């Protein structure tokens, strides 16, 4: 390809809403352009890399025995009503009607479609196991699309669905996918962590996320360097702290003027924040407001909380709702003296707290030296986030934490969907049994962004060699110099003949401009044709490391081949 | 691949709504399954062939210099409002709103998106010409989806958009696409005709359709075997007939009881239907009812009619609307004595009619021996369909006709979209000019169906060799015979090692059942492993022609390679 005939509009500047490096570089290097919030067009360079990632995914899925199909994005509402998710999915699902007024959605995921397909076409245990996948466009109307294609509303996903006769079969299919995913992300040169994760609105019994380690990741990971335990913070557990019991002191109301935060209160009272009992008020889907208690240095884990209480929606209570319960404005809430009808849930760590501080439910007042006999707790459980420095639930060692971008997620669905949609098979004894399912997703477009997030420098993208949009750029220093132009053309043709994907930068631009663009785009190897022609030489410039090397013109092909096969 | 681990659910029977052979075979051979009306899932076999077609399209598009990108299916309304098509597209466009109430559509086509992309990223004549394409999913809410993936609501299309500095450039880009399309459909082994076509709601100055000749085609083609002229009936022209002038006879009202059709009237009066002046009443978008006149043996061409009158909508007038104009019920309408305010349009052929028959605007009466001086015609033009047997407009020879499936359509758009969307470039003199555009579409999924429509027999699909989902099927006659099973496995592995795409039918089924499935699916070559093993031989069975051939086991690879390279 020649730049003069190509479409690679690079930019010097990008708009300020591009917050992450990958978003900025994808715009600047001309990989994507925004069509609407969270909706992008993939330009030639972006498209080429996307296809390379797709091919890796396809090869590894096929290696694992999965079979590719292609379902529609438009899905009729009936199947989603059968699984009840039509009513549960909420605003994230794009819904529409056809000309006859029939309800459809744009598939945010395809459990229903694949389960329906398999229930209609598979009837015997002899036809199982089966693992079907697709690389297809998904739609999620994100509340806050951001970070370019990391959190977008139309995106490409590889999703797979396995169907087995029993749990043992599912475990095997799941293990195969786990291994395939490792191969895929290894081949994408990603630094990632596999973590236990919550199953969310997909459901099922267990799941793992594949998290690309990155500061811009929207997920927090907790992991143990000692035993390898790792989990999404949504799911991560740690050993509960046991506080040293103190002899009971006398409780006392203290004036804490305008002191509403844990930190200020701890400072004001000169105590550790873990001596404060934090009270957070929530309202559930039935508009019931309840109180949630935990040590002051802990954060509520809303997913754990929802699970513990078996509720579907959780919203922080409004000022009005707080007032109804505490008769006080926010900042001074506590469990002492509260109406007995208010439900109270407390974290397990609260069990060993003594002589702690609570809000007095009175403006500008807290109570110190409170103990558990002063109020009633309806239920105890693990409702806090595990944190760096906590002790590992598996081996007791100190836990670490980092941020991650979720690029893959695998789920053991069990019989959730097969029971709802009646996807059954006849077993060896002719008895009808529900299929046992798993589902497995990879965000293809997000993986592209994650690769860039981990592979860049101040000049632009530094592609892993096999993912670069072009393998080699041929750059004549001065395209108007006939000798240079001719040699560039000749080398370009030679490389093409050796099946090397080469870009000839034949623009009439200063060589500095060309270098800048080619480095921004991230082509791993530049062949620079300049004054050294007179000595029968050209210069090889490597994107990584910035080394250069003079080589004889006759050796170029061999040099390029070495570069691409040696690593 | 082994059938035991594959997903190819074949069917003996299909539902009666599968009217065409391709639709029936795609269901029976397990290529597709219906998800909703006009919405399909591509199963593994269908998906494989789809990819082969896509690759042909991609290769030829790239050969022509076009560059691949990928735009979104979700398109914000604003661009469509800019081009006015938001208001013009009608019910065929799927529309929806996001969670913030913003309007979107599911792209039925991408002129706006590509024009927007190019206007934002190209500014100079030096960056043109440019031809961008994508292979992407389109959405059209067809009034009557049918024939499986031939007329579906979610389908895969290759669409390309060219941007040139002037008409001459456009002509060149258009010619390149014309040639690429010929190469594509030639490589798909299709029998097709390229015809002049109407530009419809895409717009532009001229266009060609690529029509696969087929009885189930929804389009009618007119073509001249002599000079090669060919056009969609929507667009086709023929030489107007000149009727022999008769001496004027006296007009006379005749009683024609309950005779409402042209055929019955001609029979009743013992005349040629061309002696009857057919009057058809239409209502336009402004609810104006007008009369359209043509010889009784001719059909109105509504597209020509709309163009001639410059109107946007055309509906046959209702009984009520007809009564308003003629004061009579339908079946007896005519131009004589009608209110002068009623607009009358007549076909050019009417000009030479004499002593003809018209409706009397009175129930059960017609008038005979009417001549043109009896009424006023507001405008004459070509408003009829050309028909088989007419004389070619180019060479005068007799025209032929056939039915066709439109698989490709190319348009010269000119500056329609670039002017509406202000897609301009700076020319050599620094002057702003609108880009000159073309657009080019291929229905990928429809092409798949068209190939099957032209390549099948009573046993199933007969794929062109290079498009078959598998190149070879290895079939042990009795999988329980250990010797057969082992040899089958060995041959299967050998073929795989030679990069031959092979299906091993290892099901425990009668060999007849296997043959039926493999023939239905259309694999071009079967290797049957049976009793001849004892003589060191297997049988090759060819899908086309039904020949068989005994070959030595050691010669199999060579035989297969010969079969695939000789044609």
From TrEMBL, chains A, B:
Database matches in Pfam families: HGTP_anticodon (PF03129), tRNA-synt_2b (PF00587), tRNA_edit (PF04073)
Domain of life: Bacteria
Keywords: Aminoacyl-tRNA synthetase, ATP-binding, Cytoplasm, Ligase, Nucleotide-binding, Protein biosynthesis
Gene Ontology molecular function, alphabetical: aminoacyl-tRNA deacylase activity; ATP binding; catalytic activity, acting on a protein; proline-tRNA ligase activity; transferase activity
GO biological-process terms attached to the record: prolyl-tRNA aminoacylation
GO cellular component: cytosol
Primary location: cytoplasm
EC number: 6.1.1.15
Ranges for domain Aminoacyl-transfer RNA synthetases class-II family profile: 38-476
InterPro entries, alphabetized: aa-tRNA-synt_IIb, aa-tRNA-synth_II, aa-tRNA-synth_II/BPL/LPL, Anticodon-bd, Anticodon-bd_dom_sf, Pro-tRNA-ligase_IIa, Pro-tRNA-synth_IIa_bac-type, Pro-tRNA-Synthase_IIa_type1
Catalytic activity, as annotated: tRNA(Pro) + L-proline + ATP = L-prolyl-tRNA(Pro) + AMP + diphosphate
Enzyme class: ligase
Keyword Lyase in record: no
Matches recorded under PROSITE patterns: AA_TRNA_LIGASE_II
Subcellular location: Cytoplasm
Similarity comment: Belongs to the class-II aminoacyl-tRNA synthetase family. ProS type 1 subfamily.
Quaternary structure (record): Homodimer.
Family matches, as HAMAP family: Pro_tRNA_synth_type1 (MF_01569)
UniProt domain comment: Consists of three domains: the N-terminal catalytic domain, the editing domain and the C-terminal anticodon-binding domain.
Function of the protein: Catalyzes the attachment of proline to tRNA(Pro) in a two-step reaction: proline is first activated by ATP to form Pro-AMP and then transferred to the acceptor end of tRNA(Pro). As ProRS can inadvertently accommodate and process non-cognate amino acids such as alanine and cysteine, to avoid such errors it has two additional distinct editing activities against alanine. One activity is designated as 'pretransfer' editing and involves the tRNA(Pro)-independent hydrolysis of activated Ala-AMP.
Protein name: Proline--tRNA ligase
Species lineage: Bacteria, Bacillati, Bacillota, Clostridia, Eubacteriales
């Amino acid at each position: 390809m020649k730049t003069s005939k190509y479409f690679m509009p690079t930019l010097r500047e990008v708009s300020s809403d591009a917050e992450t490096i990958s978003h900025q570089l994808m715009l600047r290097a001309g990989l994507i352009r925004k069509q609407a919030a969270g909706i992008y067009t993939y330009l030639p360079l972006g498209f080429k890399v996307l296809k390379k990632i797709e091919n890796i995914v396809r090869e590894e899925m096929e290696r694992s025995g999965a079979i590719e199909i292609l379902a529609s994005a438009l899905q009729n509402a009936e199947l989603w009503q059968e699984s009840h998710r039509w009513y549960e999915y909420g605003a994230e699902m794009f819904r529409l009607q056809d000309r006859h007024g029939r309800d459809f959605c744009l598939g945010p995921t395809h459990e229903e479609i694949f389960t329906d397909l398999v229930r209609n076409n598979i009837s015997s245990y002899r036809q199982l196991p089966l693992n079907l996948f697709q690389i297809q466009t998904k739609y999620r109307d994100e509340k806050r699309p951001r970070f370019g294609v990391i959190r977008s509303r139309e995106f490409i996903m590889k999703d797979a669905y396995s169907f087995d006769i029993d749990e043992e079969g599912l475990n095997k299919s799941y293990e195969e996918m786990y291994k395939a995913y490792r191969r895929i992300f290894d081949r994408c040169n990603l630094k990632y962590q596999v973590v236990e994760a919550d199953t969310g609105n997909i459901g099922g019994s267990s799941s793992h996320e594949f998290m690309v380690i990155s500061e811009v990741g929207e997920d927090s990971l907790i992991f143990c360097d000692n035993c390898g335990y790792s989990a999404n913070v949504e799911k991560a557990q740690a050993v509960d702290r046991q506080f040293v019991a103190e002899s009971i002191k006398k409780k006392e109301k203290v004036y804490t003027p305008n002191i509403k935060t844990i930190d200020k209160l701890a400072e004001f009272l000169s105590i550790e924040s873990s001596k404060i009992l934090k009270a957070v008020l929530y309202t559930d889907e039935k508009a019931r407001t309840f109180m949630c208690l935990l040590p002051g240095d802990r954060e509520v884990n809303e997913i754990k909380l929802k699970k513990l209480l078996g509720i579907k929606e959780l919203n922080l209570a409004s000022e009005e709702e707080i007032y109804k319960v505490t008769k006080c404005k926010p900042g001074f809430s506590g469990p002492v003296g509260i109406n007995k009808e208010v439900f109270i849930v407390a974290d397990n760590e609260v069990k060993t707290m003594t002589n702690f501080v609570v809000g007095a439910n009175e403006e500008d007042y807290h109570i110190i030296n409170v103990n558990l006999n002063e109020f009633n707790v309806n239920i105890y459980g693990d409702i806090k986030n595990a944190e760096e420095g906590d002790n590992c639930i598996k081996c007791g060692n100190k836990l670490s934490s980092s941020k991650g971008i979720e690029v893959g997620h695998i789920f053991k669905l069990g019989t959730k969907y097969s029971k709802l949609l009646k996807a059954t098979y006849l077993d060896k004894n002719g008895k009808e049994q529900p299929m046992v399912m798993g589902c497995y997703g990879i965000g293809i477009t997000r993986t592209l962004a994650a690769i860039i997030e981990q592979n860049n420098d101040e000049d632009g993208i530094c592609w892993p060699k096999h993912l670069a949009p072009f393998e080699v750029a041929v750059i004549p220093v001065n395209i108007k110099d006939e000798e240079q132009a001719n040699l560039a053309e000749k080398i370009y043709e030679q490389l093409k003949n050796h099946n090397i994907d080469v870009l000839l930068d034949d623009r009439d631009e200063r060589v500095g401009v060309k270098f800048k663009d080619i480095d921004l785009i991230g082509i791993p190897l530049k062949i620079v044709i300049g004054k050294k022609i007179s000595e029968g030489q050209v210069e090889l410039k490597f994107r990584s490391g910035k080394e250069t090397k003079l080589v004889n013109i006759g050796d170029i092909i061999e040099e390029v081949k070495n570069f691409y096969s040696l690593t």
